[in-house]
Target: Asparaginase
Amino acid sequence: MTDLVDAPADPVLAVALRGGVVERRHRGAYAVCAAGGEIVDSAGDVERRILPRSAIKLFQTLPLVESGAADACRLDARRLALACASHEGSAAHSGQVAQWLAEIGLGERDLMCGAHPPKEKAARDALRAAGEKPSQLHNNCSGKHAGFLTLARRLGAPTAGYVAVDHPVQKAAQEAFSQAADEETPMGWAVDGCSAPNFAVRLRGLALAAARVADPQAGFGCGLRAASAARLRDAMIAHPFEVAGAGRACTELMEAAAGRAAIKTGAEGSFIAILPAGDGRPALGVALKIDDGATEAAECAMAALLVRFGAVDPADPRVRRRLAPAYRNLRGVDVGGLRAAGPLDTKS
Amino acid sequence: MTDLVDAPADPVLAVALRGGVVERRHRGAYAVCAAGGEIVDSAGDVERRILPRSAIKLFQTLPLVESGAADACRLDARRLALACASHEGSAAHSGQVAQWLAEIGLGERDLMCGAHPPKEKAARDALRAAGEKPSQLHNNCSGKHAGFLTLARRLGAPTAGYVAVDHPVQKAAQEAFSQAADEETPMGWAVDGCSAPNFAVRLRGLALAAARVADPQAGFGCGLRAASAARLRDAMIAHPFEVAGAGRACTELMEAAAGRAAIKTGAEGSFIAILPAGDGRPALGVALKIDDGATEAAECAMAALLVRFGAVDPADPRVRRRLAPAYRNLRGVDVGGLRAAGPLDTKS
Model:
């Protein structure tokens, strides 16, 4: 604890200005890594362990593909993207998960992610109009959990209690992730919002894991893991809507990247980007953590990094909204905005 | 800008833990000051100017009392507390503001604070059931703005445009605040969420201003300002509900302080506490700013400071909720919590 409080401060990566006064300063760290482990860019303490939260859903889903469960259940790319998603609980998202569960003979009651209101307004309004409560299908993690249940079936493990850290499904997820990130096992872990274990990881390890998915042959060799990682990455890139939802950061940034990146955020300011090689760009993995957990600052910093490494155009309005959001008050007066700062300041 | 990004980091004042991993670190600065200007406790950069936002409503309301407008309009302590409030827009709050405006021959249309949905759920539900939109009366600042309009009338100034920085009402507010805080004029300023000007202030100046209200005779001498400041402070202490609302931090912390403190938060992690002398405790002013703007961290740090200076009992559940909030996930699993850290770590 003490060392974490007293450790040198990470640099300021984003600042919010109001009337020319700096009103908020968001510190954080990031690492940009090649598949061989070389760090090509970084700021702040990249050796500190963070909880990557939903940013690692692709790695938690690797065993679903590697086990053969995905093929046995004929999961298409859309379903795989949904397993790697933090979705907005729209009818399109929750409906797909319901159908998936039905196809494996399970249902909403088998999920252990808990219920929360859908993030999509139309879905919330529909529930209210129908006088219904949100179900676990609306949980942003319900696709990941459908994947967990599918894997449990494949492994012949009980579906009940599939979120326990010593359940075969979670042990497989931990193993896949720790190997990708070169993390020691047993890893530190915590219970996520959706009740699944979430594994602590050094920021540089998280960037390495992302880089290996960006270049699976260099990262994982020519075997099953490389093919499975590429398949999940390509599913996310092909289906940005499934990964989040209309107007959301991951979806819009992936649409703006037009095939150049798979991007996934996690709670409390964590983010990864998987940048395959192309047009002279090297394959890279990006991992980012805003120390105070601010989502808006994490989106700004990630947008700046995507611009820096050629994945998106800073003039694209979908990028601009994250890179330099403007603040207007209740009467529409322009009062300030957020911008990347310090090592991510594009004007320095 | 550069100096604000490159300046030495403030200390960590609060950390969020999940499964033993530090998931968020909130840095900030605070100053605790006596009415004579002596700093008795501080951490971080107390010379940096911040935007205190709603934490300075008492000072923005001083001219309402000093001008004689409050007495001329027979504003009781409840109304004065409402002028210093960031209220939750309950029927009790918005109804009082509506009546106040009616008594001075004005109405909702004269407000320039803008509308936002009431923070109180019952009021939101009532609006939805009635198919009505929120009005400016629901704005958390509507009491302050009723005060501005009342002062404008008293000064013979136009009520239209009363939020302009060069309007006599705002010039009076700025003068009262700059004098209390020993700030240079002209002060830096920004447009607040409610469209009124908000004045930049050094954190030590904000603490001094609070300390002067804690001991008005030592702080302001024996004149009108001292009497007016004491009247507003005592109105807040007597009417904690008016200052915020049921279950809200300022209200509950003031109730827990039972007369030992007037407490006011502002947006983006700013906070002040006014601690009058009593039972061997000296009169003190407390000012706090969390650098990243996190409200929960600001409430935690303020609760820790109130405990340290004898204003509240850490075992009081209304204090405990801010000092050490526990996090439970969607299925009710205990996943971690927030606690004061660094110079505010009560265990160190």
In short: Chain A has a mean pLDDT of 96. The longest helix of chain A spans residues 224-238.
